[in-house]
């Protein structure tokens, strides 16, 4: 580790901390050894000289500032894309040609510059969006810094410094912590000032409840964070109590600093999404294809701009026409523009944005657009347990009360999975008057309790320990004693018991006695001790037991065994058990009424609590759990059907996690899971980690730390899996960043986790992930549909230009027209294909491999055939207009244009040498084209009508072709166009845009086209419609091939 808080890139001078100092296991050493190691006195703290010396070694107590890439670097990165580079080259060449050529008269016309300017505009917008996304990438690191404490109370030079800036702390500093403080560094607890200290460190470890801390050392050096009970960690919060600590790690050496480093490292390893990889591969292939076709076009037309004579068998007298060379170079540029699906990035972005809206309606908030597509090929979901698979709201599952006799107990099943007191009921709960025994259980559960539950809208939120909140909910479900239920308050039962038993003192919980007690003043004016805690511990300290009617009898072995049997039964189901007991005769505390009472001194020493809580009367016990969400079991089944493996990675203990995994279906109820459930530490110790992860079915990793989660994600990705990882704490952020899809919790998640994620669950629900995966698959299928549609259209445009060049006829389609078709006309139908309804079996198929090709050999052949037809149709109608007065019974001679032979058309460059050639004037809309001065202009300016017909055929074919793209193999008879009404609307919009450029004079001039007559439109539709029939035949062949392949596969399986 470098100096905490210093940017490594700046080369600040300083001494690296020694490894021994950095890794000193203070948690496994007693207080005296720790003080000696850091050469400090707990009473005086460090001297000013010591502080300066330590800072020279360890630097400031702050997280590193990683200098991100500059704006210019981010801009340049946006052009690190094959398609973008091709577009850039095409734009530059187009601009140079437009500047060089100008108009016929030497003036620069607007038409010539439209194409390069539009391409430049596309590239600028793409770069701006990319830079904006990249600049948000490191937000997680900024959110992490906000967790750090700003001030600390420190002892230096024998004096207490109350508000020292936390960044000035160094290892060895003596710090005082109080309730509400944010811990400023990793520290070893020297001694407790209060009887107990609880710290909320769930964001770092994943633990549900605040953890009780102690000054006693841990048993082993090699222990996880959860086991370091004598340590407090930077960024966590003291919930209650106060203590004195010694700083052991600062800055980047703290646990939160390690998370910071891991997030930064993970962000450096960002990989392209599967779709981006495919598009890059497609772009590279496209580059090669364009290069070959451009070279071929030039070679075919070499004879038009480079001629020579043969003298004595050798070529001589070379003649080069720069004008003709430039013309065919423009054709090559047009071909490049035709081959590139310029509208594809915009349509993909639109489709993904629409996908995010759909997912948001299902409570999945997508932060990064490409994540929508990546979700579709997820093969493994690594899920946290607490709050995702479970409700993260502890609830009582069973209540065990005393029976009428000593050898019997009454056991009640308690429904409900939330803090809502109306959620569920107690089965077989007696109605009418409540017996004394359940009354005492309700009183202890309500009063010996520091939690509160409040209603917020339709939700109930707990404040305090979740187990205590669950007990308050239980009290409400138990109800009030008879004739006392007139109040309308939600938690009226708890309020009632608090009013009849008012607390006067608290014996705080500690780990040694494992119980909490309160001294209360009853309505009769007498004091009573109410206790709750671990069942075994309370049984040991109990001498009597209360029966159903309130009578108290001595606790014998029979009753003790019966209670322990119930305890073991509930514990084996991974329930957390708590017992209740009370004491009436309190000797010194019988008249206790506050701090001025003589017995108060006994309460100041927690070692007295066990003796005070002795000779108890046992009343009952409960079994609590964090229940699984109701919908999770079905979601796990859906994952299994969809071929997605579920791995549960939790910080919770093994038994509890296994019980939950069996209940929700990750494991079978009777399945042997000895090889599928291990701790994170055991997993790291294995030498066959990848083999272990390849097991079929679910896996469980308990007591997992951040490094375990990262290692699991890294190994899965190396094995070719597409990994979705859930998390909510600071400790989850590195793994979220590393996963293909990082999924943070919206309710329980920290800002760090949300900023590191790709998707946030608004309801923290696992089933939402499964719904999002289904939506992702549907979106990917729709994206494939419009990508195939756009690529098939581009193949048609390339074929059209290639045939034009190969046949030697005048250029039918100019670059600006192709750009209009690719960007505007094709855009609405391609976007509308994103609204195709999802397949019914979308979650019944195995996940696609991330390296599956977008277009297989058969689909490519299909679109080559379609493209070939597009080329023939667009060039064919151009030739028909010049050579035929009518076609298919449609009269084309109404405009008065001159007919020529095909040989004249293909040899139009030699027009000047033809004797007696004349071209008659013809009309197009309100325009009249006349060629009196130069008849050869008939093949240049006179080709506008033929060009318009070619462009209109191209638009019409692509509209019909969008109907073909509704389904990959399904006929339009089985999936008619109206299944996607948005597509019909989009086709109308595209035709409307085409009519606009045809019939608005200014736009018609910009695009070099003219209005068409009704007969000409009939010809356009007649030439375009066969594309549907051709693809229907190809789809039929595809269905037959698929059916044959399935039959062969089925026969092979039968034979085996």
UniProtKB/TrEMBL annotation:
Reactions the enzyme catalyzes: Ca(2+)(in) + ATP + H2O = Ca(2+)(out) + ADP + phosphate + H(+)
Molecular functions (GO terms): ATP binding; ATP hydrolysis activity; metal ion binding; P-type calcium transporter activity
Enzyme class: translocase
Signal peptide: none
EC number(s) recorded for this UniProt protein: 7.2.2.10
Residue ranges of domain Cation-transporting P-type ATPase N-terminal in the record: 25-99
Keyword Cytoplasm assigned: no
Pfam families (alphabetical): Cation_ATPase, Cation_ATPase_C, Cation_ATPase_N, E1-E2_ATPase, Hydrolase_3
Family: Belongs to the cation transport ATPase (P-type) (TC 3.A.3) family. Type IIA subfamily.
PANTHER family according to UniProt: CALCIUM-TRANSPORTING ATPASE
Protein name stated in the entry: P-type Ca(2+) transporter
């Amino acid at each position: 580790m470098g100096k905490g808080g210093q940017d490594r890139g700046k080369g600040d001078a300083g001494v690296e901390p020694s490894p021994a100092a950095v890794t000193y296991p203070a948690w496994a050493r007693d207080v005296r050894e720790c003080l000696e190691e850091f050469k400090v006195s707990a009473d005086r703290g460090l001297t000013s000289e010591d502080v300066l010396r330590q800072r020279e070694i360890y630097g400031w107590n702050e997280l590193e500032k990683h200098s991100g890439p500059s704006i210019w670097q981010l801009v340049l990165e946006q052009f690190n894309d094959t398609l973008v580079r091709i577009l850039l080259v095409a734009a530059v060449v187009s601009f140079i040609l437009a500047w060089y050529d100008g108009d016929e008269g030497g003036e620069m016309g607007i038409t010539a510059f439209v194409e390069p300017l539009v391409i430049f505009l596309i590239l600028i917008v793409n770069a701006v969006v990319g830079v904006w996304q990249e600049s948000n990438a490191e937000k997680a690191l900024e959110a992490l810094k906000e967790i750090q404490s700003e001030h600390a109370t420190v002892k230096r030079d024998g004096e207490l410094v109350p508000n020292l800036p936390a960044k000035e702390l160094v290892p060895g500093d003596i710090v005082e912590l109080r309730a509400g403080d944010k811990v400023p560094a990793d520290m070893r607890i020297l001694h407790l000032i209060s009887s107990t200290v609880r710290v909320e460190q769930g964001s770092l470890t994943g633990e549900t409840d605040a953890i009780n801390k102690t000054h006693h050392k841990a048993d082993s050096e090699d222990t996880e964070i959860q086991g370091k009970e004598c340590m407090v960690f930077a960024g966590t919060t003291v919930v209650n109590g106060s203590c004195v600590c010694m700083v052991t790690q600062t800055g980047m050496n703290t646990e939160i600093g390690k998370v910071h480093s891991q997030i930064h490292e993970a962000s450096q390893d960002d990989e392209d999404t599967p779709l981006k990889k495919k598009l890059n591969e497609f772009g590279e292939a496209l580059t090669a294809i364009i290069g070959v076709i451009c070279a071929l076009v030039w070679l075919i037309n070499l004879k038009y701009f480079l001629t020579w004579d043969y003298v004595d068998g050798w070529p001589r007298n070379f003649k080069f026409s720069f004008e003709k060379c430039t013309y065919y170079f423009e054709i090559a540029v047009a071909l490049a523009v035709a081959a590139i699906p310029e509208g594809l990035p915009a349509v993909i972005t639109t489709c993904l944005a629409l996908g995010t809206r759909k997912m948001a309606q299902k409570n999945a908030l997508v932060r990064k657009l490409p994540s929508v597509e990546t979700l579709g090929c997820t093969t493994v979901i690594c899920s946290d347990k607490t709050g995702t698979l479970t409700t993260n709201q502890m609830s009582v599952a069973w209540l065990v009360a005393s029976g009428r006799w000593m050898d019997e107990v009454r056991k009640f099943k308690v429904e409900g999975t939330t803090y809502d007191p109306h959620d569920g009921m107690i089965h077989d709960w007696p109605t009418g008057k409540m017996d004394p025994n359940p009354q005492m259980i309700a009183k202890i559960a309500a009063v010996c309790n520091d939690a509160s539950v409040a209603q917020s809208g339709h939700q109930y939120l707990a404040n305090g320990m979740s187990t205590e909140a669950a007990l308050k909910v239980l009290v409400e479900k138990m109800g009030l004693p008879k004739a006392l239920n007139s109040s309308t308050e939600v938690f009226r039962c708890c309020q009632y018991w608090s009013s009849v038993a008012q607390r006067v003192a608290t014996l705080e919980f500690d780990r040694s006695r494992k119980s909490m007690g309160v001294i209360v003043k009853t309505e009769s004016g007498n004091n009573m001790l109410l206790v709750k805690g671990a069942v075994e511990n309370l049984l040991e300290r109990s001498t009597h037991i209360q029966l159903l009617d309130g009578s108290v009898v001595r606790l014998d072995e029979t009753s003790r065994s019966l209670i322990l049997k119930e305890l073991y039964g509930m514990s084996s189901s991974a329930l957390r058990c708590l017992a209740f007991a009370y004491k009436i005769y309190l000797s010194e505390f019988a008249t206790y009424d506050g701090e001025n009472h003589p017995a108060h001194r006994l309460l100041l020493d927690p070692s007295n609590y066990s003796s005070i809580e002795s000779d108890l009367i046992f009343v009952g016990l409960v079994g609590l759990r964090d229940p699984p969400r109701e919908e999770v079991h079905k979601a796990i089944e859906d994952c299994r059907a969809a071929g997605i493996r579920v791995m549960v990675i939790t910080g919770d203990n093994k038994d509890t996690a296994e019980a939950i995994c069996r209940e929700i279906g990750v494991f079978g109820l009777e399945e042997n899971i000895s090889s599928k459930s291990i701790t994170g530490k055991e997993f790291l110790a294995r030498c066959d980690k990848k083999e272990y992860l390849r097991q079929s079915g679910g896996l469980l990793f308990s007591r997992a730390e951040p490094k375990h989660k990262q290692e699991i994600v890294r190994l899965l990705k190396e094995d070719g899996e597409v990994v979705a990882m859930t998390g909510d704490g600071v400790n989850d952020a590195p793994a979220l960043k590393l996963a293909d899809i990082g999924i943070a919790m919206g309710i329980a998640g920290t800002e760090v986790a949300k900023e590191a994620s790709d998707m946030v669950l608004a309801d923290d629900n696992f089933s939402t992930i499964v719904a999002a995966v289904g939506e992702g698959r549907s979106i990917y299928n729709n994206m494939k549909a419009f990508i195939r549609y756009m690529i098939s259209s581009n193949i048609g445009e390339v074929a059209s230009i290639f045939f034009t060049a190969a046949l030697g006829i005048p250029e039918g389609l100019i670059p600006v027209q192709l750009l209009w078709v690719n960007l505007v006309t094709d855009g609405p139908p391609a976007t509308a294909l994103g609204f195709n309804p999802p397949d019914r079996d979308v979650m019944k198929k195995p996940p696609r491999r991330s390296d599956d090709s977008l277009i297989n050999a058969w689909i490519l052949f299909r679109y080559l055939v379609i493209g070939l037809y597009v080329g023939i149709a667009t060039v064919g109608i151009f030739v028909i207009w010049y050579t035929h007065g009518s076609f298919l019974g449609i009269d084309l001679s109404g405009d008065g244009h001159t007919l020529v032979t095909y040989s004249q058309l293909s040899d139009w460059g030699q027009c000047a040498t033809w004797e007696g050639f004349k071209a008659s004037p013809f009309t197009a809309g309100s325009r009249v084209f006349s060629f009196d001065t130069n008849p050869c202009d008939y093949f240049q300016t006179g080709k506008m009508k033929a060009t318009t017909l070619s462009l209109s055929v191209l638009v019409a074919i692509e509209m019909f072709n969008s109907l073909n793209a509704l389904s990959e193999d399904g006929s339009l008879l089985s999936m008619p166009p109206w299944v996607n009404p948005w597509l019909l609307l989009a086709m109308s919009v595209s035709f409307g845009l085409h009519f606009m450029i045809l019939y608005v004079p200014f736009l018609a001039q910009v695009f070099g086209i003219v209005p068409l007559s009704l007969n000409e439109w009939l010809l356009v539709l007649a030439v375009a419609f066969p594309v549907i029939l051709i693809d229907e035949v190809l789809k039929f062949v595809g269905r037959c091939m698929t059916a044959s392949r399935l039959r062969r596969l089925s026969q092979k399986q039968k034979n085996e």
